[in-house]
Amino acid sequence: MDVTALKSERVRIALRPKMQEIARRVQLIREQDIGMMGGLWQRAEQSFRKNGVGIYFVKDAAEARRVVGKLVGTGPVVKSKTNVGREIGIVEFLRGRGVKVTDTDCGDFLVDMMKQKAVHPVTPALDLDLKKVAEKLKCKGDGKSIKEAVRKKLESEFGKAKVGIIGANFVSADGAVMLIENEGNIGKVLGMKKLVVVTSLEKIVGSHQEGLECLLAQSRFATNRVGKFIHIIGGPSGTGDLGEYQQGMHGAEEMHIVVVDNGRSELLKDEGKRDILKCINCGLCVLACPVFPNVGLEQSGMRGVVIESEAVGDEKLKEVWKCTGCGLCARICPAGIDLRGIAVVVRKKLVEHGHQTEGNQVMMKSIGESGDTLGKKAGGVGEDEGRKGGGADFTYCC
Ligand code: SF4
Ligand code: SF4
């Protein structure tokens, strides 16, 4: 796959007038819903409970793992994509307890099989070497043969699993988990007897209608087309054909939703960073960014750095120094999030807390001592002699 061509095509399409129209609508919905997050979750909770769904609001990743672990029991588990699940490390946790977990999204399955890291929230296997993948699967190296080999492996796992774990693109305050997909694996996971949804606070939308608009937009900006299947799940399956209503027919008999905070309530209070909660997780900013994918940084780029840093602290936040401030992410984000502006806010906070890059510290010291970014002994910007003379490793605008 020519990843560079794919990137520029997606960026070009995202800037078309029709797409910008869709983006403006998303921005309105997300702005409004993030502002009413608490009230919307109260409504959602009432609707879910009425439909026999268990709902658990958890503070952090550790509590989320504990709750999901209890719900899952001994498994075995088939799971579809959940970026919140990835954030809390649910697969590693369950496997650590001896529970068999199989990723059923093709990309996630391959990334897991190859013991690699996902490079993108929507297309995690974007940079896998398909030749190596085929060797591992003992099949031919073309896409069709790999797909068939993956399908065969997954069929047998679906047959054995007792629990399904899914994420949510959005959760409607009217009481529904909303998802969009192409592969059909989510549909199969929904057929497990017990269903556990792992999601987070900012996924809430005011209604099914708003959720649908955001789903379609997410799909368009993420993949340049509308996904083939949309799921709106209000509760466990059941039948009213046998006199008294019987819960659990062809779909789940039990359904639980774990809503993860993990720093999001704090983000909501932070004027400089709260906009990040409007994200619809299309991954376009990661695809377009000239820096984050190239330095092997985690799959959700600047957005992930800011969200996860609220939970794991300044160590994670230091990644923002890698941003060049080019602003492309802010230009194309359908949710209108100024990621570059947020990076500036985060950098200021880091400096206030005494965190600077080593290079920056050297440069500031040099300026203080000699008025020159490269120090007294430096010959000039870019000259190797300057570096040998003890000046800064590199320079950039601070
Ligand atoms: S920050 Fe914007 S571009 Fe990036 S994933 Fe979220 S909605 Fe998409
Ligand atoms: S502003 Fe930073 S995060 Fe955004 S695209 Fe440019 S380098 Fe990437």
Helix content: 40-55%
Largest sheet: 6 strands, parallel
Q: What is CATH's topology name of the domain at 36-262?
A: Rossmann fold
How many runs of DSSP E, i.e. beta strands?
12
The CATH architecture designation of the domain at 36-262 is 3-Layer(aba) Sandwich
The radius of gyration computed from the alpha-carbon positions, rounded to a whole number of angstroms, is 23 Å
Principal-axis shape = globular
* Measured distance between first and last alpha carbons: 36 Å
Cross-sheet strand order for the largest sheet: 1-12-7-4-2-3
The ligands bound in this entry are:
iron/sulfur cluster
Describe the structure.
- The protein has 398 residues and is α/β, with parallel strands linked by helices.
- Among the domains are: 36-262, 3-Layer(aba) Sandwich (Rossmann fold), CATH 3.40.50; 358-388, no CATH class.
- The protein has helices at 3-14, 17-35, 37-50, 61-72, 83-88, 90-96, 106-113, 130-137, 143-160, 185-189, 208-223, 264-269, 284-288, 301-312, 314-317, 328-332, 339-352, 358-370, 384-388, and strands at residues 53-58, 77-79, 101-103, 163-166, 170-172, 176-181, 194-200, 204-205, 229-233, 238-239, 246-247, 254-260.
- Strands 1-12-7-4-2-3 form a six-stranded parallel beta sheet, sandwiched between helices.
- Helix 2 packs across helix 11 and helix 8 (130-137) crosses helix 9 (143-160).
- The protein is globular.
- The two termini are 36 Å apart.
- Bound molecules: iron/sulfur cluster (2 copies).
- Residues 288-292, 302, 323-329, 339-340, 343 line the site of one iron/sulfur cluster.
- One iron/sulfur cluster binds at residues 279-285, 303, 333-335, 337, 339.
